[in-house]
Fold these 2 entries.
Entry 1:
Amino acid sequence: MASLLSFFTHKFFKILLALYLGLFLLIWLISSPLAKYLISPILAEQQLHLSDDASIRFNPFLMRLTLSDINLISSKDTQPETVFSLAKLKLQIELWQLAFDKIVLSEFSLTKGSLKITQHDGHLVIAGIEIPHSTAAGLNTEQSSEPTNDQAITEATAETATNFSYQLVLPHFLLSQFQIEIEISNQEQKSTNHHIEIEELSLSLVKATQTQQEGNLALTALIDKSSLALSANAQLTSGKGDIHSQLSLTNYPIEKLARYVEQLTELKGSLSFNSQHTITLAEQGTSIRVKKANLNVQNLIVGLEQQHLTLNNLALHFNEFAVDLQDNLITHLAGTSSLILTEAVLSQNESKATIIAFKQLSLADINFVLDDEPSIDITDIILDEFLFSKKANLTDAVARQAMAKINQRSAEDGLDIAAEEIVKLPPVMQLKQLTLNNLHIHEKSITINSIIFDTLTGDIIVKENKEIANLIALANKSAEQKTAEPATTENVIVLAEHTAPKTEKIAHDGFTFSFKELHFINESALNFTDFSVEPIYQRTLFIDTFDIGALSNAKEKQAKPTPYTLVGRSNKYANFNLSGYLQPFATVPSYYIKGDFKEFSLPAISSYLKESTGLEVKTGRLNTALDITLIGDELAGNVVVLLEGLETGFVDSEEAGSLIDQGALPLNMAMGMLKDSDGNVELDVPISGSTADPKFGLSSIVTLITKKAIISATQDYLLTTFVPYANIVSIAITAGEFALKLRFDDLDYQVKQVAPGKQQAAYLKDFIALMQDKTDTRVTICAISTPADIGLKAGVSVSDKAAIKRLINLGEQREHALKDYLIDHGNIESSRILLCKPQIDSDKGAMPRITISV
């Protein structure tokens, strides 16, 4: 019996072993053709098929799945295309570990593969398989229509997850030499291709249970030919814990992102980024802590419709950067950083003119906190070699033509002008360096410790048509603004609705701006050349000192005056020294200026006096002392003017018919009456008035000084000089109040009187004497009749044509009678007496008369 049992056992064992080996061997042998047979119909539905040499084998002895030479080919297009390939896949499970509640993947690797992903007009295709749009919608529909089933599924899933007691163990996973091709296109934009080459993706020491998860990750890849390196390790408890990682991306081509920014016509450059950070997953939210991070952008080119931006380098550095998220909202953001922009140029596409450019802009030691009360502190902002509005150089032919024209005009005006420098069209403004020190930005305030301008140079060139030659005219956007106006208005309204409470609070509390000091250091200069006037006007203003003290609109500092000092020179000898204070934010704003202008040559301003006053300055120099206060709209103070060697003349005074030929007294004569023994004129002029007057301005100040100082000072002298003619002459201010002109009183007549009589004798005696004394004076006599001259009632307008004719005839008789009287009794040439068309005065109380004008 024992031997029978032994035999039976031995034989049964062999049979069982043979069956086991045979079955496993059969599975191993038929696994590949069977798998391909079962997969082919499924693939055919997507117009896909496997290559003939593809192999899918399962080794039941080792519990290993091996795929090799996998090529998935799409036949949707006329040309077959491989959409997925894999040289080798190995997956082995240690089945016996299941007895210990472990799922151990002892080997898992993929080698030399490729995957193609396309998205055309919103249709996503992965490895030749189209992902339908309706998937997500269908899921949402089912969830909304069957809430009970959804709840049941959720509960079942939760129960399954709770009962899942196995531990997943992956000692090592390796994906190497795998390529992913991504193509994105639509009807509106050109297609964009992205190429991802995974050199190695490694997962190691992965252990995961329902409550504990840990593992390491290492990735090296090329994204659009840019190196990407990522390493991370995680230790989580129920999905909560820390993930430590390092990320590095080198020289990513920015042009790959162009399609995502529709407003840009061009986008080029390379981007590099690296960081060391920790992500903490917790019940209350997610936090990210970045120990350090660096972002670099090189050779950036940004094209807009009408402008073009180039930037050589952008370097942004972060240290101790912290972000807290809760319910996908940022609840805390803080850190320190620095920013450097190098060699930036913004230019126009069509003209190639430079709008702005700078060599470097650096923001050092930026500390920011963006919480309930956000704030940003910046130790220094430094802008180097800034330039504004530089037009492109003219062609050689155009430049030569412009230089010849400038040289011709400068020779005619007797000026020495650097035509070559002007033709180069210097920029409107250049600044060697701008420094802002200790900048603090708050939600409701901006404070700056100091602002320093180093070597500011400005150039303004005015063309003959009054345009600024070197100022770039920006494109007119009015049409685009009108087109976009409805949408913009709607967006503003929506924004206002959401931000109204906060805006009201800020407006109530007020926004404050302040700085402690502002300085101009080294030599700053403003060059001005005006070709629109005759002669050409050219002047250079040098600023040697310009300092402004503390200025703030904070409520507690509004009444505190801000001192300032301005010292400079103009051209070779002129200089100025001004000081005072500002209180622009006080309840009643006030300003004070005290100082002097010295040795200003006056002939240079003739180019502008000619048009406004009809005068030009031949010689002269101006020295001025100012002491003026402006409180609100009221101006008060004193101006002391010292004019040295001033000589003026009327424009084109050599031509006949000027005021001087008609009895006007030029400013030279008036000034001559005020000159001291050295030939100088010193005037002490009080100034008062309101700046709210629409006529207030530089011209009104000049008029005020001239009227009070010159005209009033000479008027008594002139009246005394013309005492013999005081009965018939008064002094009138004319020619912009820069010349004094003789004006004759009216010669009254009796009603119906025609020829001069005894009543007019005294007047005519003085008039004849003046005409004989002023032999160059020419007058016009004009008779004015009244209704009483023909017996009509006074104060009633004459409308009858016959009555009008009678009054006109009477006026003509009076004019001829007076002219004959002057010729006969004064021997005055008839050519010096002009007649006008008689007029009628119907006003009540009007007297017949003859007006005499020069």
Entry 2:
Amino acid sequence: MTQSSNESDKEPGHASAPGPETQTFPLGGAFVQPPSPPAPVQSGMPGAPAAPPAAPVEGFKLPVGLNPAGWWTGAVAGVGAYVAVLLLSLVTTLLFVVGLAASGSGDSVSVPSNPIVSDGDLPSPWSVLFQFAAQLPALGLMGSLGGKIDADMGMFGQLSATFGAFVMPLLITAAAVAALFIGGRVAEKRLPSGTPLDRLMQSVAAGAAFSLVLNLVATIASIRIPAGSELVFSLNAANAASIVVAFMVGVAASFLGRSRAAAAGQANPRKRFAMSLVRDAGLTVTAHAAVFLVVSIPVIVIVLGIKSGWLATLSAPLWAPTVGLFLLGLGHFAAFGTVTAAGSGGGTGIGSSNFGYGMGSALSDFGIPAWTGWLLVLLALLAVAVAAIYWYLRRGAQNPASILGWTALPAAFLAAGALLLWVSGIHASFTMAQGSGLISIGLAWWTPFLMLLWGVVTEVAARYLAPKVAPLLPAALVARIQRKPSVLEFPRAKVPAAGHGAVPGTAATPDGLAGQAFPAGPPPAPGTPVTVEHTPLSKKAKRNLILAGGAVGLVVVLVGGGAIAANVVRANNGPDKVVQEYLAALVDGNAEHAMAIADPSISNASRVLMTNEIYGKAKNRPDGFSVLKTSVEEDAATVSVELRQNGVKSQTTYQLVKTNPTLLNNNWTLQGTGGGKNLGTGSVAVQLGSKLSTILVNGVEVSLAGLDQQGGSMYQLPALPGTYSLGLPETSKYLSAEPATAVVSIQGDGMGQLAELKPTPNAAFDTAVQEQVSALLKACAEQKTLKPEACPFSAYEYSDTRDVSWKITKEPTFDVYSSQENTWSLSTNAAGEAAASYERDTSFGSSAPEWKKDTYDARIYLQGVITVDKDKLAVKFTD
């Protein structure tokens, strides 16, 4: 195997010069050269030692190598790192708010239903853009967005509660680590620290400044939210965790950056070996995760962008890294789900958990087909292959047969699994005197142990698969991977130090390596990478390989791209989209389109209120909605939605089934049962005080003919959520009624509050009845008989009469009552009087007629039935 030195790894300003004696010793079959003492460096040059510390105060002596006068550079690096992170937070927040505006929600944000804060209390996202951005760095460093509320609830007593939500914006977290690392490296190059201890103190200053500014700004920029007319509470993400974690991350990242910029060769050999091993294992796990995430994150952003619009696309920097880690876990057979817990002040509590796998409910609950989970597994296997090759090429001269050789990479995967579980979790909690609650969303607790197994698989692949695949890689790629080879592991046997009975044939070891077993020669150097033999291919073989690779790639692109495209198109026509279209029609008042989407299981004859003309004029229709969850199981789907109507929120579930599915469209159909209750429909219940053939609903005349009645004159008319105004038709000349209001709530709980529409006779009714009574009496008075036909008065005479005439001397008064037959009854209140004058025959037939004038006074009693049909009133008099 050819051995090569790696002088290119030495950084400027850190060159080594040969010492007075140079020896070479064989180590592991290779000849390596000991490190030489550093060359003198002029003051002020990069890599030069820091100026000596100021004279100590009398009575106090600083540890050797500390220079407090230069610690300000650490603080400046920490503040500069925070400024960079804050600028990134402002950009991501601006994209999020622009996405809200593009989705039509630019001036409002909805919160889950609660008794404290309503949607109307929330500030506009534009007004709190900076405040929200200021919370992101604290959230990225383990902060929790929450606050405390103290309120007097009147008869319910004093309410005191704390609440918080934990979710790490991982892009901000990564930016913070990178900014601190780069800031430490730049600061170290500009003003080098004299010793490792001074370097640590510089890093402590950076971490302290970073944590102080981050949490101070987050606290000052608290988001103020009113709860009612008098109560206001503040939300911020600064807490003890964000203070400690920001400080620790600041110290660690800054120290690593400074150590990277510090002079090489200062670490002892075993430390260099350990750092090399940790670096290579960490880079291998990083390569594994990068291959998975660089494919999965863009795909999920594109898919959700198509499904949910600009809001999902522009807010991707906030959610995409976390979702990518969830997919990473699912692709490695980890479970994803929720854990809830609640407890009362008395100490009793309940809890539950619900987990699913990528091939099961974990993805299907969000409307993503379960077979997508197997694609994630295939992507994970691809990432294993890449990581195995990378580990094989990086490991170089380390001894793979040792225990450390078998355990290093699985241990790195285990640590990565623990980090994955830690940073990807989403938690929300509240605590009050009456009890507490917690909900967590994320990967299952056993995820790190699954990652450990994947690390073992990768290690096995690196030993048996990678050596066969590595020769197929381009030489330039192999050289790039092996640019900084690993450090050789040192033998464990001890030898005496120089001058103390050294073993013959060995040389004295340099300072810091005494007691290590080395053959005569220098201390160990970086190991030699594995040699990858590249067998040149003939032109024909290259052509065939290119053609075969192109064909395979084309098939993969066509099949994979077609599958993804078909899935995206189907997802865009998924069950949640159908529900969204249905609810959007309700919001717009387009009842006919809503009924075309859904099947409410209501007869067409009963849909008299489900027209655009009526529903478009309904007030307090649903004014917004949010899809909470979508679950698909074979040919059925369930979509959970939160509806908002006139300040009230309600959660409902919609059932859908596939109807004649095709390749690109599953044709989901909303199913309604029981009068469409599960579609959010209800009914307008109206009680009529009299028989009517038509009523007005939202100003539109509705015929009641043929509709089922309940209890005589009560109608229950199916209706969509909203408020309906009821009245009498404008053609009703003789009746009046107070307008009534019927409310159909978004709960779809059947018949709402009964609305009574009581038609009552008006003045025109009284006048018309009086006119018909007078006409009847007049007609009766004109009859020349003592017994007028169909009249309320008459006279009786035993003998013949002639010249009969009637005169109404007093018209009767009457009352009108609503009868059980849904008509009005007329009856006499005070009798009227009619006088008859006539001549009667007093001869009684014994001789020639003897006519004698006579009179008769009759009382008038009226009875009758009054009916009204729009503009026609009729009185039917009865005996």
